[in-house]
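Structure tokens please, single chain.
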Amino acid sequence: GDAYDNALMESTIGLFKTEVIKPQRPWRSLAQVELATAEWTDWYNHTRLHGEIGHIPPAEYEANHYLTTTKPQLTTNI
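Here you go.
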């Protein structure tokens, strides 16, 4: 909840509108917009190469982060 959160969201929404909403109009139905949004979100998180994190997709970076920072849980069998 600060100004930086708002700036990031506004930037992402602007990018989405520029890449998806405006070029593909006129939209015929809400279902078309929903499908395009889901496809773009999947691409944005799982396929897009992000230069600031080593040119890998954000989802891969996140998975690698949790693999390297999560400590194994110890279980005991009694």
